[in-house]
Amino acid sequence: MLTDRKRLGLLVLLGGGGTLLLWYLAPWAVPHRVFGGEGVLLNPFGHHLPQGSLPQGYRDAWLYPVFYLSLAWLALSLLLPWTKAGPQGLYWAGALGLGLFLLTYLLFQGSVAQVNAGAERPLLRRYSLGLGSYATLAYGLYLLLLARVFSPGGLALLVRRRGVVVPLFSLLLASLLGGAIVAVLKESPGEAATWREALMLKLDLITYTYQLLYSPLVSPSGFLQSLLLATPLIFTGLSVALGFRGGLFNIGAPGQLILGAIAAMLVGVYLPGPRWLVLPLALLAAALAGGLWGAIPGWLKARFGAHEVINTIMFNYIAASLFLFLISANEYKFFGQTLHLPFKYPGYEARSYEVRPEARIPHWTDLVAPGGELSFALPLALLLGVLGYFLVRRSLGHRVLAAGLLGALGYGLGGLLPGPQVAFGPDLTSVRLNGAFLLALLALLFFHLYVFRHVGGYELRALGLAPKAAEYGGVNPGRKVVWTMFLAGALAGLAATHYVLGGGIDEYRLKQSLPYSVGFDGIAVALMGQNTPLGVGLAAWLFGILLTGGLQVNLQLGISRELVAVLQALIVLFIAAGGFLPRYFTDPLRAAEVELKAEKEVKE
């Protein structure tokens, strides 16, 4: 039987050995890279330098002192588990590793800036750290994780946070397997003279692929585009998550989104009136249409016991057929009679008339800087809304009402305050992010308040966890099933407002190209988000980042954007398998045993 000290020492040795191997095989920095992925790879054990690829004056002397410091740090970390410092010492070693990574980053950026400083145009434009440097960061985080696990109560803390641990570990496994797929299917950019250079090129290819995938995090236009793609995923993810919370599997989000889109189009195109009336009515129509379309399978389940999975799948086909029926043609013949419909816009393309300006959701620039002046309306509304919620100490309804009233007051006052002039470039204004993103954030807040702060949400969760016990406690299961499916459908229906009223694709109209498949993507978002509002929001944003970065991967490396779909599928697969983590991360009873054991150890 291995003692905790021996287990800790072996795990540190395993991580340190892997880090040293990556230091030897992988590049530490890439100061120059051409379109297509080929780059200059710097490594303390020998560079890979294509002829004439670096400008004169570039210095890599910073690399060797950093390498020797890293070796000393690695040796120290390997000794710490066998000393009295134990896990506590690994905290300091992990923090030191993060500091070494930061030092590497600053020195590398300084060497690049020194070359670019005297040139009219930057000589080095595509540059980044390599996998060798990221290995230092990963090993530092690994030491911090080991220090936490082997500290008293550390494992129990991770088990309590299993809703975060399982998705993150699943993402890590999916990324590793996705990297292996890229290495097998894609040829390395550049030529290698030795086996080590061949491995270095492959590792750099994998690293660069993921740098491109996550590039929206450091690009303003990419960041906005990722929020654009995340907006409908938030709605559909919440729709599926709400069903999961109530013990229901809502696969009908695509059909509910379609009905929401049809209703939003009907109100937005054919209802005249002022903006303050038409836009809210269009939003309400989308929510009601999606909710009613979801409530029908809920009623069938409550009344006849029909399974919601079968019903919602069939309703998706009905919704898609109704959608095409309305906008594909204006004339249909039935039993010798001609039916005339007014919905299709003239022309060959299947699309509706354009939504009236009064029913359009504002573009993000109109919200942030209407008329070219920075607006304080949204920041002040958020500040006063949060203050109103936390300052009122009465019931949830009173707190929400106070937050809403103060938020509206803050929006009005902020709009009156003069702001500085701002100008956005075409790369930012071309991103079609709109106010539907704010609606998605409000939907996350609604999910949290209803599911975790309201009596109805408590009954919903009780019904999902133990239906018989909930019914014995006074919950009407039939009524609750219908209501849950209605709310889930309403959330999915609101996703359509991003496309029809917000012009999320290219036009303010209902089109045949409506991407209602995001309803199915909501299943992956809900699973990765562990059916929590924060988790769903972050998972949707992650998928938005990957979808945006996938375009860059396709453009620069020629790798199909289907890689993103593969990663999403792998993430869902690994989450379904519990990330292949021990049972106490997936079984609540085992988790309780771990926590009880930790409490006994702390008392002793």
Provide structural commentary:
The protein is an all-alpha fold and 604 residues long. Helices cover 67% and strands 2% of the residues. It has helices at 4-25, 63-79, 86-117, 131-149, 154-160, 162-185, 195-213, 220-245, 253-270, 275-304, 308-328, 364-368, 377-391, 396-416, 426-429, 436-453, 455-465, 467-472, 477-500, 518-528, 533-557, 562-576, 588-603, and strands at 29-30, 128-129, 331-334, 337-340. The strands form 2 sheets. Strands 1-2 form a two-stranded antiparallel ribbon. A two-stranded antiparallel ribbon has the order 3-4. It is globular and about 80 Å long. The two termini are 22 Å apart. The mean pLDDT is 89.
Return the string of H and E elements.
Answer: HEHHEHHHHHHHHEEHHHHHHHHHHHH
Averaged pLDDT: 89
Helix content: 55-70%
Rounded to the nearest angstrom, the radius of gyration is 28 Å
Give a quick account of the main beta sheet: strands, pairing sense, barrel closure: 2 strands, antiparallel
Across the major sheet, the strand order is 1-2
Structural class: mainly alpha
Low-confidence sequence ranges: none
Instruction: Tell me the number of strands.
Output: 4
How much of the residues is beta strand, in percent? Answer: under 5%
| Count of alpha and pi helical runs | 23
Shape: globular
Distance between the termini: 22 Å
